[in-house]
Amino acid sequence: xxxxxxxxxxxxxxxxxxxxxxxxxxxxxxxxxxxxxxxxxxxxxxxxxxxxxxxxxxxxxxxxxxxxxxxxxxxxxxxxxxxxxxxxxxxxxxxxxxxxxxxxxxxxxxxxxxxxxxxxxxxxxxxxxxxxxxxxxxxxxxxxxxxxxx
Length: 150
Prior knowledge:
With about 150 residues, this protein is α+β, with helices and mostly antiparallel strands. Strand 1 and strand 2 form a beta hairpin. About 50% of the residues lie in helices and about 20% in strands. The chain has helices spanning about 10-20, 25-35, 35-45, 50-60, 65-75, 90-110, and strands at about 115-130, 135-145. It contains six helices and two strands; from the N terminus they run H-H-H-H-H-H-E-E. Its EC number is 4.2.1.104.
């Protein structure tokens, strides 16, 4: 009898639990698979397919089985989860884009012309910056400009 492939959300829960129980940071895992940390977290939470060699390393590191590897390598279905949008951290990111999105759109058009920033040909970086008024969260979006062509 053939069993279904584990849903990506189930694999993500196993990965998170194993990471916490083993005291590993996301950066530790990203370093082991030689991948950017933000991409690594997104992929292991189910938002990207993971190359089989990287999935194997993650599962060996975390003591997880073949079922998780099978799940990780699959193409995800990327949909907005409304329940996640109410998390305070994610909500604040939505809020920041709601406030600054129109201004960034205007600036992109002024600087580049008629087009958009790709979220497919895209890099994102995250860092912490010390500040006398409290540490700052620095998030950098780096997307290829795609011009509208007629």
